[in-house]
Give the backbone structure.
Amino acid sequence: MPELPEIETVRRGLERETVGRRVKTADVRTTKLVRRNGPKKNFQARLEGTKFKSVDRKGSLLVANLDSSDLLVFDLGESGQILRAAPKEPVEPGTELVVSFTQGGQLRVIDPEGLSEVFVVDAGGLLDEVPELRDLGLDPVASPVSWTSFAQALVNRRGDKLKGLLMDQSFVVGLGEVYTDEILYDAGLRADREVATLSTMEIRRLYRSLVEILHEATKHHGTSIDDLHPFVDIHGKPGSFQDELEVWGRTGEACRRCRGTVGKSRVGGRTTFACPSCQV
């Protein structure tokens, strides 16, 4: 499943490749993809002829601002991709939407699992259409998060355990198992620690690890590991943060910090990679 660094990588790619371009046609190949707009003709009518002004991100949703004052929203779910393509390139199996621009080039939404969703909505109606956006938590990649804001948000969840809390979208947006495990390792904290047991120093370490790892992973264009965590950007290129992973997927290997052995366990029903020797 794409996590925050991967979604942000796609957003930046979309911004570079689409802003200022006008949509010529929108070929909807799977009606389910645009179901929020009803018949696919409704979706096409609202998108065709519009120009991309900017591309934002709301949590894990990619949101293109159109010159019609509408928003084009991409929800890639667990398995969707957006690829930039030339019209002559073969259309891959699982392609659900092909957006062609007047200046040439296309965007293609590909999702063999059929879990993605794309829709056009009035700019003022996004929160009504996706009400869960009202409850999104901190987003360190989108805007700076101060130490005090982080600490206060953490203290308000004193009874929670760390891994479940970090993966809660109402606390921090866009974290899955990969970056949660890496953040906790970097901070030297167990996944099953309760927030109430953390010292001020441990909270500071967790804050630093959260911010630094998310920014570093974004700089590396995300993590790409074959079937375990597949990801490519809009040009089909994989990320490189997999070369920086300290614990995730390294069961049985030596911890690079203490030379203990990286282990794999279940915490809160989730697979968790950690070093039991130096995470406390």
In short: The first strand starts at residue 23 and ends at 28. The chain has a mean pLDDT of 96. Residues 4-135 form a domain with the N-terminal domain of MutM-like DNA repair proteins fold (CATH 3.20.190.10).
